[in-house]
Amino acid sequence: MAAAQPLLRRKLRRRGVAEPGYLEAVEERFGRYVEAVAPASGPRVWIHAVSLGETRAAGVLIAALRERLPGVQLLLTHGTATGRAEGLKWMVPGDLQAWLPWDTTGAVGRFLTHFRPDAGLLMETEVWPNLAAGCRAAGVPLVLANARLSDKSLQSAQRLGLLARPAFAALAAVWAQSEADAQRLRELGAPVSAVFGNLKFDMAPNPVQLEAGRRWRRASGRPVVLLASSREGEEALWLEAVRAYPPIGPAVQWLIVPRHPQRFDEVARLLQDGGLQVSRRSAWNDVGPDDAPPPCDVWLGDSLGEMALYYSLADAALLGGSFGMTGGQNLIEAAACGCPVVMGPSTYNFAEASALAEAAAAAIRVADMGQGVQMASALVAEPARLGITRGAALSFAGAHRGAAARTADALCALLVAKAG
Question: Alpha-carbon Rg of the chain, whole angstroms?
Fold first, then answer.
């Protein structure tokens, strides 16, 4: 890690061309800080949420924690520009925000000395060897919350057992999403003490976006199918599929939302080079609340933080990441918006949620993108079946809430135990 420092600086410069947020406070990545930190009047809880999805899930935990500890001071750390921008929404005066430093002994030591957290909480998967060892040495209890570990990640970690096992063993506690995640984490020596469920079930969709999307959907002259959070290569698979498999039933209005903002222009060019007419979300500012966006071959969702709008605008969604064999994306938000999901074969990143959604008839599994296009177009062509599936999605989303309260209670108990 120490030898990689110059390469990491170059990587940040390159990412900063498309996403300027990566050029903000670069020295924090190396454990160097400009401003001193005043002593906190209450407990200082550090929460690390690497990217956008983890930060949104952390938001419901933060709300629950503030209810229990009104005087808590939060330190939020992130690894991506989108995560850091989202984190600003959850901060109040007195809270702190920084990049998590790269995992070297020196940077971790400077980070802990500078901020002096009373406890640390890592969201989902972010366990680093030097970080875990540094927290144990400094007496900072470090917890992995909303923890998940796929079979693929377990196999990778086992190949790096000399690094992974001491890192997981150094944690103060692990609170897993599911029993299957708990078992895999225990195989790495992690101190799993509870299974609390998935925090993302506690996330409520933005009501303003929900209403705007529903009104646009009602005004649309044809059913809308969304390719949600698509990963690199999946748009090309979709383009090939819609040419090979014409939609079943009425003509579909397609909507594509790429997972990463730096790919918006690239995807637009791919679609246009494929002979399709594209209308971008960034050009819809003049569309009235009761007027649908202009019909064309594809609507392109080139905005951040509007997935509730896109899911409520769509009648059904193809799950990005599940067709390009990258483990799938989170389908819980789609269900909470009442949007049925058609998912491909690769959902190992969200194995538990995907299996539960399929069992609840809130999601449909297919073998490839061609079948996905056919299934989604057939579903939106049958209003009765679509209504049943939409109701199943809403019921599924509501049936698994409560992880935020359980996690906040456990974190409060940890702070009490440390103070005592």
Answer: 22
Note whether 19-197+402-419 and 207-398 share their fold. Answer: yes
Answer yes or no: are the C-beta atoms of 403 and 202 closer than 8 Å.
Answer: yes
Beta carbons of 84 and 78 less than 8 angstroms apart: yes
Domain assignments of the chain as residue spans, ordered by start: 19-197+402-419, 207-398
What whole-number distance in Å separates Cα of residue 334 and Cα of residue 411?
Answer: 29
DSSP 230: E
Let me know the angle formed at the C-alpha of 258 by 255 and 264, rounded to the nearest 5 degrees: 100
3-class secondary-structure state, position 291 = coil
Q: Which residues contact 258 (CB under 8 A, 6 or more apart)?
A: 229, 230, 235, 264, 267, 301, 302, 320
Per-residue pLDDT of the chain (420 residues; tens, 9 = 90+): 778 888 888 999 998 988 899 999 999 999 999 888 988 888 999 999 999 989 999 999 999 999 999 999 999 999 999 999 999 999 999 999 999 999 999 999 999 999 999 999 999 999 999 999 999 999 999 999 999 999 999 999 999 888 999 999 999 999 999 999 999 999 999 999 999 999 999 999 999 999 999 999 999 989 999 999 999 999 999 999 999 987 667 789 999 999 998 899 999 999 999 999 999 999 998 899 889 898 899 999 999 889 999 999 999 999 999 999 899 999 999 999 999 999 999 999 888 899 999 999 999 999 999 999 999 999 999 999 999 999 999 999 999 999 999 999 999 999 999 887
* Tokens 């008839």 belong to residue: 361
Dihedral angle at the C-alpha atoms of 341, 346, 350, 355, nearest 10 degrees? 60
Topology classification of domain 19-197+402-419: Rossmann fold (3.40.50)
CATH tag, 207-398: 3.40.50.2000
Q: What are the tokens at 366?
A: 């297919």
Rounded to two decimals, the pTM is 0.88
Torsion over CA of 261, 15, 153 and 334, rounded to 10 degrees? -10
Q: Is 54 a catalytic residue?
A: yes
> Which of 19, 28, 35, 54 is the catalytic position?
54
